[in-house]
Amino acid sequence: MPAITLPDGSVRHFDAPVTGATVAASIGPGLAKAALAMKLDGRLVDLSTEIAADAQVVFITRRDDTALEMIRHDCAHVLAEAVQALYPGTQVTIGPSIENGFYYDFARNEPFTTADFEAIEAKMREIIARNAPFVRSEQDRNAAIAFFEAKGERFKAELIRDLPESETITFYSQGDWIDLCRGPHMRSTGDVGTAFKLMKVAGAYWRGDHRNPMLSRIYGTAWRDQKELDAHLRMLEEAEKRDHRRIGKEMGLFHMQEEATGSVFWHPKGWKLYRTAESYMRRRLEQNGYEEVKTPQLVDRALWEASGHWEKYRENMFQAQVADEDKTLALKPMNCPCHVLIFRQGLRSYRELPLRMAEFGACHRYEPSGALHGIMRVRAFTQDDAHIFCTEGQIAEETVRFVALLDSIYKDFGFESFRVKFSDRPEKRAGTDEVWDRAEGALKEACAIAGVEYELNPGEGAFYGPKLEFVLRDAIGRDWQCGTLQVDFVLPERLDAEYVGEDGNRHRPVMLHRAILGSFERFLGILIEQYAGRFPLWLAPVQVAIATIVSDADGYAAEVAAAFKAAGLAVITDTENAKIQAKIRRHSVDHVPVIAILGRKEAENGMVVLRRLGVEAQETITLEDAVKLLAAEATPPDLARLK
RNA sequence: GCCGCUUUAGCUCAGGGGUAGAGCAACUGAUUCGUAAUCAGUAGGUCGUAGGUUCAAUUCCUACAAGCGGCACCA
Fold first, then answer.
1. What ipTM goes with this model?
2. pTM for this one?
3. Which end of chain A is least crowded, N or C, by CB within 10 Å?
4. Domains, chain A, ranges and CATH?
């Protein structure tokens, strides 16, 4: 007879097997009402699950994060029922909960449009109001396949066919509607609540494979209550305002146009931001033992054939021919082969290792049209690329050094946290298992030493070696790989890089491919969103706007501007015949971090009124102090540390 | 590349088979006004590109391009 242990340590005894609902009711009517599901010995199950033996039980209520996931999953089921009710003949496939919501993939000849949402949502509300219980049942495998095939649900039938033989096939019904599902679910459709909204439609390949048919995916968001939903929708609206494409336009940082799809036209202010970041990176690399090089844009295909890129990536390379020569050149899609060519000039000694060769390498890749995204994913980009030529024994130490540098640089740019993914050996790979064991081992060891916590990303490594990916998130919640560190045993072999070791013999170096920002374009895009265009002083393309109140202060404004410029500050002077309110608004909208306001009083006393972006409070100080203050504040963080 | 949507003034957007409209910005004039929009006036458009239907297309249809949202891809 089951003895049930609750989280507070108390034990309840029952004479016969009981369901979770009964246990909850025995504890109190409040819990009976609130319990949506339970964890039975740590396993999430339906509340209706029968407990026959002694067990630990934790009830899940709406407050739990687990409940939120269940709301979303159940909401996906409700969506599927609604869609099949409204659009007969539509096949169901899968519908998981995801971050902030859920989706469901349907197979239907005619795709959905957002215009269908109103009707679908209304039907969903009906289904939820009906409050039909979710009922679990186990099915025989063949009967289940036959059941779905009879209904014309070939995708579901395929899913079951591909489940391992050992798997129990379970169905869940909600009223008349029934679906294959592992579960668990909440008690009934009413538990979903009404705080949901359909968001967008999209195409998605069946099972994520582009050779498969394309399904019609509906995304939705779902929350515990209306307040949470409203907050989420408001957050999305705010995120839209941070979009780098919008801010880039508003602040006049860059633009893109059809004549150069996937390439950025940097405007003066955007280029200033770019150069600030580049100068900073150059200093950090120099401080950290890197040597900068510059290699050709156009390189004969022979090099790409030798490196293996021609075979694998030719379709994605821009090629160039010249009339007089029978040659095919390619715009470099990456810098590593060229770096090996530099390494190969002259005889290298083990004493030179590790040799850290850096380049702000401008690369071109013919990315698929659908992959392009603002300046985050482009066809022409510049990497803060470097290759570390080292021995196998140096991999761990170089990794530790790299991670420390990356961490410090991300912090300087205002990124306090980031995700790290460890991508290990892919199915198709070069090199022996033994080499992979050593490479992965060295990387793991380095992560342990550096205190890097990572998520395993199995099978996603480069074909030549394992890699670490450093991921930053944009305003809308999309993740982008920025930094990377890749261990490569293959390219040195292919391009015949070698050094003379201590023993007097020739050896192959290992190459570590590494980037911190990744590409300037992507990193700056994320940086724009991170700050919503309100950059710290050292990054701001325009640092101070000098605004006069009356034209009598124009002469003084010129003097102030000259003093600021002499201190290295980027200044604009606004002596237009307009009200000071209007000028403040104008420069605030432009995200200028500091507005220096000059009236008659200031001109007479040699003072400056400083007003910070978005702050009403202001300080009145002497011109001399203002120059000192702002110059200090505008010092890049690495240089500030040296002081 | 695939699915869907979008493309009208510098920007944000409205409109709709009879050759276009607002706000902001721009320009001109007045205003010198102390902390997030002073007032008035003027100018501004091959309605993404190319075809087709029509007496007539910016509007309807087709193709293409670019952008957006996903999927796939990302050396």
1. 0.95
2. 0.95
3. C
4. 3-60 (3.10.20.30), 68-239 (3.30.980.10), 249-529 (3.30.930.10), 544-640 (3.40.50.800)
